[in-house]
Design a protein that fits this description.
347 residues, alpha+beta, Jelly Rolls, Phage tail protein beta-alpha-beta fold, 3 domains, 7-stranded antiparallel β-sheet, 34% helix, 29% strand, globular
């Protein structure tokens, strides 16, 4: 693919890339998401290039690729001579002293002087970017797919199957706010000037240098489990501070937040492909198997009210899991396509 050796500057002047940024289509999104997933070393380049293009809102004049290339070539020649334009330090401070942004700042300045059509108020543009859906960075996993990756600030994310996170293109510069649907584990890079916040439904979890898990895959029940550091969790009802080894349970806005201890293997094992049940009831196991293997489970028969199971599975097939559980709990099962039928013994 032609992008393999691309720099940030190459992305800025690539007409297909610019089209995706300015007028995104579903097919383009799939292509670029696939490219970033396959080439994680290009993700930061793409994010920087995209943020720069979005910050240059034109009013009437739309420079084409040749215009960008001409100005960029002049800039690069000046850069090699180590000449610095007037106002260099103020721009450098604004963009956090990134080599790319030194070029981007000059490029923006050149176009604004030559054509007088670009906005000078960067704060207004950033606000618009953060509030516009198509200007969000989205990472999404299909059922049965799990992944891990770095955020622009160096924080690590493990994203579970059938889960999604999104954040604005200004993430790491003006905010560190993550929107989560599903389940994810976060290992947060410390930055006291920008608190790390995960918004999951009506719950806000704030951290500085911390690792924790957020699970919204249990319907009306949310769980936030802290591994290290400290977090502050806030709902509409109340607010709690959590210690390592504790989890926050949120059942509804009326009930508020409750804190309890948790089993690390059961809560965090999914990151390593481990499915662990600890005295789990049948309905909890059914829900987790449906999510883990992306199947529908149909139950026939009467369920024992004292039914519970403890067991651990590592990268196991659905057949293997059902075989082991059924041996202990004495039920039969069959699998056809994506439907599992479990026949319980009647009382």
């Amino acid at each position: 693919m032609k992008y393999r050796n691309y720099t940030v500057e190459d992305y800025i002047v690539d007409k297909d890339f610019v089209r995706w940024v300015k007028k995104p289509r579903a097919s383009d999104r799939l292509l670029w998401e696939s490219w970033m997933n396959s080439n994680p070393d290009h993700r930061d380049k793409i994010i920087e290039a995209r943020a720069f293009i979005l910050s240059m809102k034109a009013e009437g004049f739309e420079p084409d690729t040749s215009d960008f290339r001409e100005v960029l070539d002049r800039i690069m020649k000046n850069t090699r001579k180590e000449t610095r334009p007037v106002g260099y330090h103020s721009w450098e401070t604004f963009v956090r002293i990134s080599p790319f942004w030194r070029v981007a700042a000059i490029l923006a300045l050149a176009f604004s002087v030559s054509f007088g059509v670009f906005r000078s108020n960067q704060t207004d543009v950033v606000t618009q970017v953060a509030d516009t859906t198509e200007d969000l960075i989205i990472r999404e996993n299909q059922p049965k797919q799990r992944s891990n990756f770095n955020l622009p600030d160096g924080s690590l994310v493990w994203l579970n199957g059938d889960s999604k996170i999104s954040y604005s293109v200004t993430y790491g510069n003006e905010n560190r706010i993550i929107h989560l649907e599903g389940e994810a584990f976060f290992q947060v890079a410390k930055d006291e000037s920008l608190p790390f916040v995960v918004k999951s439904g009506s719950i806000y979890t704030q951290a500085l240098g911390t690792s924790f898990n957020v699970n919204t895959r249990k319907g009306d029940l949310q769980e936030i489990a802290l591994v290290s550091g400290s977090i502050r969790v806030k709902s509409r009802k109340n607010e709690v501070v959590v210690k390592p080894g504790e989890k926050v349970i949120h059942k509804s806005d009326i009930a508020g937040l409750k804190v309890s201890e948790y089993n690390a293997l059961e809560v965090l094992g999914w990151k390593d492909g481990i499915l662990h049940f600890q005295n789990s009831g049948f309905h909890d196991i059914k829900r987790r198997l449906e999510q883990w293997y992306d199947v529908q489970i149909v139950v026939i028969g009467t369920l024992d009210s004292n039914w519970n199971y403890t067991g651990t599975f590592h990268e196991s097939s659905l057949e293997r899991v059902l075989e082991r559980i059924s041996y202990t709990k004495e039920f039969s099962y069959s699998i056809k396509n994506d439907v599992v039928t479990i026949k319980l013994n009647s009382l």
